Amino acid sequence: MRGKTWNPHTDKRPTVWEATHHLIERLNSHGETGSAMLMTRMPHDMAAEARNLAYRLYSICERKGWADHARDYNALVISWSGIGEEAARLKQAQEAGDATEQLGMFE
Question: Is residue 2 part of a domain?
Fold first, then answer.
């Protein structure tokens, strides 16, 4: 996994699966702000599908008894509204010219 350097705009074949796991990695390593920074680089539909996939994978992991994996997917789903709010704030700041340094913080 390329972790912090993954960018859906430069990836020649970005997938929802990949986006979901990168969002989880960012959430685990940098909290909601890290995931929000990545979300600002994703097309809106990719981010929405990543949330749907995380929820579906959480359900599957719960049924199978895979607690460690279920925890990561559930954390993304639970944090989604906070991540979305932070992403909106970051986009507003970027449009106002205030966020260029912060958005590059995890590169």
Answer: no
Locus of tokens 């809106």: 44
Confidence at residue 4, expressed as pLDDT on a 0 to 100 scale: 52
Output the six-digit token pair for 36: 């929000």
Q: What are phi and psi of 10, to 5 degrees?
A: -100, -15
pLDDT for residue 88 is more than 80: yes
> What span, in angstroms and rounded, lies between the C-alpha atoms of 97 and 5?
22
22 within domain boundaries: yes
pLDDT number for residue 102? 52
Domain boundaries, position 52? 15-103
From the list 91, 104, 20, the residue with the least C-alpha distance to 57 is 20
